[in-house]
């Protein structure tokens, strides 16, 4: 009966913390989210439950708390709502005594503190539900699933639907009920941490007692027994419900029933059933005169004469509750008085939402029961159990309730939603990282210069995820650098086809098409890149290179000027403008552009070099020399700079300096084009001068 930790937990994007630190962080998140309610006043239902409730007054007999309902009315009265929550009222009375009166700060702080504790304890609850139990020869122990339970607890701590429960003081009932709900469940789990074959009846009795305490805080507490039963079936007995039903219905194996008797499941379920029945019987006797009476204003759907319309509206209410969990964009303290108009005909488009809800629920149920992944079955099942079972008392299925929608009743149910959401995040992260890991390895290899290995990993990333455009883009870039241009074009074209606004891929595609002499297509690709990224200096630079190759000098200069306007320190664009103007004979303009560039990039030796060439052609030898020497001071090992400075000295008549720099240029690059011929020419000239002098 060993259950392994679910694989999806490892891929959740959260740090792995110890249990204590996870609880601390979760409690802190809960505190940050709701501490701003500490200075609120008594509002809405607080007036009746606290301000006007005589049971809070220290002068009132303490025994009245056990005779009256939540609002201070006698339970035997026909006007009583029958909300029997004496322990919650007792905490209100304690707040009153400690503060010396009705001061709301203490009430609010206790609510926030309870939410912090409950959020931290959710880690323990979720860890058991996700991780299950293992047996190591010394008894059962909980398998911890740290990241998944931590993430689910964080979702629970911060969920906005808890606003009414935490910020509204009457929400104390839901908070206390949730706290003892958790404790009852955790104590039930303790019953199986002894021997593998036995369970502790005393721990089970303790769980039922805590269930009773939860009920004395709010009636919803009884539902923990249902959660305990499902936990027993799925985790303790490790039963696959779908397989069990198939065996019982189609294979007719009575041995399965015998196994359930031997492992004690039927005994434990009987204890839970009779314990729960006893609690409900006592609760019914306490109500005295029967269920509470509500008016049509409180719950209009329950007064609809047509049973079909009643069912449809109930289901519409369920869908609204589900939407509040999924997207709590709008919250309201009171949904009565016609806030939710009834659906009265099949032509009402709102009838679609219950259908959507049930399609989603049935999809989850099918995955929870029939998935081959045991971790997925367990997590989704318990998510649904926590979502649905605590909500049943508010569902109108067993008795009429006195509200349309009440966000407070979703406090416990939200735990199930948070568990399902955490699973969804982990599952998506798991699926994503199957191809993401190849991408990351490929990127690291490429950064280290190992392009061959990087290509292998990028190809695998694309194979696993055929629409992974970033992997396609990086793969195309490497193939471009390796001159495998046709395949590079194929990958980059696929990337922009999948994601038409991928500007970087459009630019890289343009570079490849330019290399393939597909100039018209390259130009279009560059303009597409600029269309999707208005400020794209690198793309303007590459567009300028294309125009230069096509001898469209004006267009090239305009493109490079755009690049420098968007990115003033774009060295390549500045340098190419100077070189193009130099090559086309526009020396004066080239000089102006070069000097403008050096104001922005005063240490750029490439621009100094280009400007020095321009000045040399204009016979501004002294100024040209200064820029050559400045460039060499920054980067002294550039053969071309020594060679061009030598030519300048050669023309200037400073032959000894020319000889020195020709030799340095040839030392750095013996194959430098033209340098050796110029050097030989200089040597002949020097020899001729020596002969003349001699």
Task: Give the secondary structure arrangement, pairings included.
Elements: H1 19-34, H2 46-51, H3 86-99, H4 104-131, E1 133-135, E2 140-142, H5 146-158, H6 163-167, H7 172-190, H8 201-217, H9 224-236, H10 241-251, H11 255-262, H12 265-287, H13 307-326, H14 352-370, H15 374-388, H16 410-447, H17 451-464, H18 469-481, H19 485-498, H20 503-515, H21 519-532, H22 537-549, H23 553-566, H24 571-583, H25 587-600, H26 605-617, H27 621-634, H28 639-652, H29 655-668, H30 675-693
Antiparallel strand pairs: 1-2
Helix pairs in contact: 1-4, 1-5, 4-5, 4-7, 5-16, 7-8, 7-9, 9-12, 9-15, 13-14, 14-15, 15-16, 16-17, 17-18, 18-19, 18-20, 19-20, 20-21, 20-22, 21-22, 22-23, 22-24, 23-24, 24-25, 24-26, 25-26, 26-27, 27-28, 28-29, 29-30
């Amino acid at each position: 009966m060993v259950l392994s930790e679910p694989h999806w937990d490892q891929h959740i994007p959260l740090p792995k913390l110890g249990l204590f630190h996870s609880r601390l962080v979760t409690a802190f998140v809960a505190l940050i989210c709701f501490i701003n309610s500490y200075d609120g006043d008594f509002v809405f239902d607080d007036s009746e439950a606290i301000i006007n409730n005589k049971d809070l007054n220290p002068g009132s007999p303490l025994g009245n708390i056990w005779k009256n309902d939540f609002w201070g009315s006698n339970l035997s009265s026909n006007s009583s709502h029958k909300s029997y929550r004496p322990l919650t009222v007792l905490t209100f009375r304690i707040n009153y005594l400690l503060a010396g009166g009705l001061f709301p700060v203490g009430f609010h702080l206790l609510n926030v503190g309870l939410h912090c504790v409950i959020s931290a304890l959710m880690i323990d609850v979720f860890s058991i539900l996700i991780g299950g139990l293992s047996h190591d020869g010394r008894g059962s122990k909980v398998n911890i699933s740290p990241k998944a339970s931590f993430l689910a607890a964080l979702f629970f701590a911060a969920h906005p639907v808890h606003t009414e429960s935490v910020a509204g003081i009457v929400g104390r009932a839901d908070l206390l009920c949730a706290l003892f709900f958790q404790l009852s469940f955790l104590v039930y789990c303790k019953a199986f941490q002894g021997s593998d074959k036995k369970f502790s009846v005393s721990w089970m009795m303790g769980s039922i007692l805590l269930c009773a305490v939860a009920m004395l805080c709010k009636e919803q507490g009884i539902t923990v027994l249902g959660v305990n039963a499902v936990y027993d079936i799925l985790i303790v007995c490790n039963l696959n419900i779908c397989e069990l039903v198939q065996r019982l219905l189609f294979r007719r194996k009575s041995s399965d029933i015998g196994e359930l008797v031997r492992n004690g499941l039927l005994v434990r379920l009987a204890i839970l059933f009779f314990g729960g029945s006893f609690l409900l019987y006592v609760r019914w006797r306490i109500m005295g005169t029967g269920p509470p009476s509500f008016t049509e204003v409180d719950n209009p759907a329950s007064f609809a004469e047509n049973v079909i319309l009643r069912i449809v509206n109930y289901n519409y209410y369920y869908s609204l509750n589900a939407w509040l969990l999924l997207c709590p964009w709008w919250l309201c303290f009171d949904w009565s008085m016609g806030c939710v108009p009834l659906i009265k005909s099949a032509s009402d488009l709102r009838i679609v939402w219950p259908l959507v809800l049930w399609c989603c629920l049935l999809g989850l149920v099918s995955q929870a029961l029939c998935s081959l992944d045991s971790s997925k079955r367990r997590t989704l099942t318990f998510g649904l159990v926590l979502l649905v079972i605590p909500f049943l008392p508010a569902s109108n299925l067993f008795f009429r309730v006195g509200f349309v929608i009440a966000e407070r009743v979703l406090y416990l149910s939200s735990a199930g939603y948070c568990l399902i959401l955490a699973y969804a995040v982990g599952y998506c992260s798991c699926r994503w990282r199957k191809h993401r890991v190849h991408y990351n390895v490929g990127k690291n290899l490429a950064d280290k210069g190992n392009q061959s290995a990087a290509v292998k990993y990028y190809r695998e990333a694309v194979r696993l995820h055929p629409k992974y455009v970033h992997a396609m883009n990086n793969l195309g870039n490497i193939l471009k650098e390796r001159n495998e241009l046709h395949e590079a074009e194929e990958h980059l074209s696929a990337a922009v086809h999948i994601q038409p606004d991928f500007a970087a891929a459009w630019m890289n595609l343009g570079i490849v098409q330019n290399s393939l002499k597909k100039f018209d297509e390259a130009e279009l690709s560059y303009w597409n890149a600029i269309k999707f990224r208005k400020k794209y200096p690198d793309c303007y630079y590459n567009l300028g290179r294309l125009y230069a190759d096509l001898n469209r000098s004006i267009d090239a200069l305009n493109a490079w000027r755009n690049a420098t306007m968007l990115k003033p320190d774009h060295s390549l664009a500045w340098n190419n403008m100077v070189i193009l103007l130099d090559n086309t004979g526009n020396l004066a303009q080239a000089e102006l552009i070069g000097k403008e560039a050096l104001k922005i990039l005063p240490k750029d030796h490439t621009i100094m070099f280009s400007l020095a060439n321009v000045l040399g052609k204009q016979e501004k030898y002294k100024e040209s020399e200064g820029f050559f020497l400045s460039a060499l001071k920054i980067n002294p090992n550039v053969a071309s700079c020594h060679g061009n400075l030598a030519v300048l000295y050669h023309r200037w008549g400073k032959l000894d300096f020319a000889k020195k720099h020709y030799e340095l240029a040839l030392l750095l690059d013996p194959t430098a084009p033209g340098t050796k011929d110029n050097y030989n020419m200089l040597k002949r000239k020097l020899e001729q001068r020596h002969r003349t002098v001699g």
